[in-house]
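@channel anyone free to eyeball this complex?
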Amino acid sequence: MVVWLATVAGPDARRAVAYLGALAVAGLAASIAAGRFEGVVAALVVLGGCYAAILVIDDPPLDGRSAVVGASLLAVGELAHLSLASRTAVTDEAGAGARRVARVAVLALAAMAVGGLVLALVDLVRTGGIAIELVGAAAAIAAVGLLTLAARDARG
Amino acid sequence: MTPYASPRLASYLGLAALGLIGALALRRAELVVVAAPFVLIVAAGLLFEGRPQLKAWLHVERDRVVEGEEVDVEIELNAESAIDLLELNLVLPRGVSVVAGDNPCAVRLATGEDRTLPLRLRFDRWGSAELGDIRLRARGRIGMLAWEGRVRRPHLLRIYPRQELLQSLVAPLDTQLASGDLVARVRADGLEFADTRAFVPGDRLRSVNWRASARRCELIVNERHPDRNADVVLFLDSFAEARGDDESEDGTLERAVRAAATLAGRYLERRDRVGLVTFGGVLRWLEPGGGLVQRYRLIDALLETGVEFSYAWKDVNVIPARTLPPRALVLAVTPLLDERSISALLDLRARGHDLAIVEVSPEGVVPSGDGLDALAYRLWLLRRAALRARFERSGVAMARWGDEDALDAGLEGVRAFRRRARLSRR
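replying in thread with the prediction:
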């Protein structure tokens, strides 16, 4: 993913993407080796930062690759979680590992489809000017609502 | 079952929030697209995955086993709702290991599915083991929440000590009045020939030795030794034990209980009456008795034995008098580590009890070390040798039973001592 991002980045953003990408890969490897999911999240943030750097420096009009980036980040997070979860002493059924990897692939494809849908919607309302702020605000409110819901479920 | 959030839940929500804030700050809609999958997976995980409905049972093949035996166990599961990943762990007490099957294990259950998970367990240590504590953790397909719970289906298993190899026993000095397999020293009706003497009125005619009478020209009768039983009291010292660093290796208490169980079984087979005194932090006793019931009583009492730490000074006076009947053989099984049990044994001998000691030697368990440790170890060995000499001077037969030796080899030391040294009566 880092290589792909460095390839698609413009000449001005390439160096920043390469540095950030190397940092993310090193952080991800270290986190998986240390068995810490928090480090994986930090690596995902840095990877997202690579893409944000491309958006800021190259300033494309509306980047269609964002759906792929979102799906890839989700796949990286899920695979890292699988890797950490597989280290327990629990003996899995035969074929469980392959089934989980296949599920991650399905999730990534679904995420890509959802991203494409959101991208199409954004493109549709792009001329509206304030539409992006509205979408962003609604999504932020939704995220906070989900966080509250999750906290309530976990407590009770 | 109690729900717990997966570490991914908060992380993905944080990532999504960061992406959305970044989209607002940078005015780039693409970051919303990047954040969207994280929001959706969390939402799907919270909305579509409900509490799993599961029932579990434990079936144990039998509830009494001999140390070292293997037992089949089955965990039966019934899922009322689909569970994508069920992690399951049957908590095993110390000394129980899995020979076949996976524990812990993970399974996937469809709605209404019944599943039986077989396990084969090996019981390596005598005692009581309670099985039935099953820990469960269930996750859905997305796995944003995990439900943890435990099922308790208690099954108490009694693990009897395995028998040590033993060919002959320590014979008591005195026998009791009931019939048994021992030849008494007294002369009376019996099977074993003792001596001849002149006929006196009242002697039974069948006792007349006709050949000797013909030779001596007077009536001579045979005298015989009767067959009697004995009272044996097993004195188990549970004040202290020596144990190596390796938990799987036996400590002195495990070996002592195994020896006591073996001795009890063998004496009872000989129709002797066997009692038990567990002398330690908690005093337990069982009055001498015979038969199969007494054997189970003894073994059940032995299974309860453990080292209970206590500062309280105890001596022979705390033992009920009827537990130590007159003319009983007191056979002590002890590592000779605690001053209280040592003084109690010396006290027993001083009171005239027929005492023999099987020392469950802790010397192989304790590492000798280097330098000052080695010196201290040698001093400790010398002190133990002096203690043994002190017992032998008191007329107590002692046998050292090392962890490599057979119990029979240890008891041979007692038998040899008692053959050579006759106890004086006090």
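from a first look: Chain B touches chain A through 53 residues (CB under 8 Å).
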